[in-house]
Each structure stands twice: as C-alpha cells, then as structure tokens.
Amino acid sequence: MTKPNSPSCPPKAPLAERPLLSVPMALEVARIFEVLASDTRLRLLHALVLLGDPCMSDLAGVVDMKPQAVSNQLRHLVDLGILTTRRHGTHIHYSIVDPCVIKLMHHGLCLNEEARAHAKLIAS
Question: Helices (H) and strands (E) in the chain — how many of each?
Fold first, then answer.
C-alpha cells in the first residue's frame, strides 16, 4: 500500500464518480479492513486518539493488556502504514498517520449506534 500524499488523504473524486474498483485495489482495501476488523486494534486506535502520542507501555495500561500483546498488534498497524513511530529515549511512541483513520472509526461508531437504535426500534 502506498502512503497518502497529504496528511488528510482527500479522495481524488467522490466514490460515485470513481471507476469500479480493480481486483488489486479491492484486495488492498480489503487488507486494510481486515487489519481494522480486530476489536483489540480498534481499542488501541481509540486509545491513541485519546492519549495523543503514547508509548507502548502507556497503551498497554489503558487497554489492560500485556505489553508484548500490544506490541504485536501495533506492529500490524505500523506495517500497514496506519501508525508511525518515533523514538524518545528508550521509548517508542505511536501516532496515527492519517486523519482518515480517525474519521473511519468515527463513522464505524456512528453506523453501530444507528444499527443499535434501529434494532431497538424494531424490537419494541
């Protein structure tokens, strides 16, 4: 996957105006969704939003996981280009590369809230 040219990653054109996804592009996008389709990684990303630029041990404390487990999950996100790292002394700090990730998480939460409200309405 190539990194976005700008920090905000604006789309080149609205989705409805783009040509149908090619198989390779669909596979790249699917890989992103596969990596994000982990409750642990979503919690870590949310913790990154809340904490700003934490080190791995800070994240481990917030999500109540062992540091090695957090490190393994963060590696997936770094390898995909979703997170970046910076060294500060002996600690490595993590941050989200692209604000599109934060927007995607926000939209996911909104979709979940709407689906729950709809299910509640149907059940009543």
Answer: 5, 2
